[in-house]
Design goal:
It is built from five helices and no strands. The protein is an all-alpha fold. It is globular, with a radius of gyration of 12 Å.
C-alpha cells in the first residue's frame, strides 16, 4: 500500500476519535518525518528509534499497519 494511501486511511479511520493533543502529535510526526523515513519504520524494514516508542501516534500507526509489528513486541507496549 502506498504510504499516502495508508496515512489517509489511518486518518479517516481515527480522526474523529483523536483529541487535540493526539492531532498535534500526529501533525508533528508527519511534518518532521518524510514518507521515506516513516515507511521503513512502519513496514518493520528499519529499526524504530526508541524515542518514537514514546509517541502515542506512532504506536497507533504501528498498530494500524500491523498489530504484531516487531517494535510493539520487542518493547512490550500494551
Amino acid at each position: 500500500m502506498e504510504m499516502n494511501s495508508l496515512l489517509v486511511c489511518f486518518i479517516e479511520s481515527n480522526l474523529t476519535s483523536l483529541n487535540d493533543h493526539q492531532v498535534q502529535l500526529l501533525s508533528s510526526l508527519l511534518e518532521s518525518h518524510s514518507d521515506v523515513v516513516l515507511y521503513p519504520w512502519l513496514a518493520g524494514k528499519a529499526p524504530l528509534p526508541s524515542e518514537m516508542l514514546n509517541n502515542e501516534m506512532m504506536i497507533m500507526l504501528l498498530r494500524y499497519v500491523n498489530p504484531h509489528h516487531p517494535s510493539l513486541k520487542m518493547n512490550e507496549i500494551p
